[in-house]
Amino acid sequence: MAENEVLDFGHWERWKLSRRALLDPASTISELVKVAEDECREAVRRLPAALRKGPPLIILFRALQGSIRELQEVVAAFTEKRLANVVIAAARCNPDGHSHSVARTAAETMVETLVDQITTRAKKEKRFCSPEEQVALREALTTKFAPYIAPVCEAIESSLRGTSIKQVKAFTARVRRMRPAEVARMSLVSVPSQERPRAH
């Protein structure tokens, strides 16, 4: 399921603080973006490990030569199904099949999707809804998430080549600890029951 994937804003554990910030009527765009950037860094740091748990993305190149049903069966084996589908779309947009070009397109798409998810979620929660606020939020998130395209690209490219997927070394810092005042304020914000983890 998409909400169990690392680079998906629906992931319960990975983006908990960002969703709480959206539920806090006192939070600002800059506060939301800061928390989202921290959690994005952590998600990107975890991506190589998530990719190593599943089949290498290189098998998607081979599956693209087969039938649609065969391709669907291959995608079903991936934990990161959204990423697998994004890689397939990227491969179709890059007919030369060069691993770096496909990986770069896929990485950019994944980061852009995260920005879309957060801005859409903000509007759903009736936060930062005006056109000006939506533009400001989107621009800020795009700027802050831009540095993470390269490590995502590197991880995807390694998997596409069938080589070892190395841990992201540039972003080893953990999500920053919230200040006492932030913790106190966030503790008053409850997360809706429909967003609690589902039983599997």
Description of the structure:
This protein is an all-alpha fold. The chain has one domain. The chain contains nine helices and no strands. The radius of gyration is 18 Å and the shape is elongated.
Brief account:
By secondary structure, this protein is an all-alpha fold.
Tell me how many strands there are.
0
Biggest sheet features: none
- Report the portion of residues in β strands: under 5%
Number of helical segments with 4 or more residues: 9
Q: What characteristic shape results from the CA principal axes?
A: elongated
Head-to-tail CA distance between termini: 11 Å
Portion of residues within helices? 55-70%
Q: What number of domains? A: 1
List strands and helices in order, with pairings.
Blueprint: H1 16-23, H2 29-53, H3 58-63, H4 68-76, H5 81-93, H6 99-124, H7 131-145, H8 149-161, H9 180-187
Helix pairs in contact: 1-2, 2-7, 2-8, 5-6, 6-7, 6-8
What tags apply to this protein structure?
mainly alpha, 9 helices, 0% strand
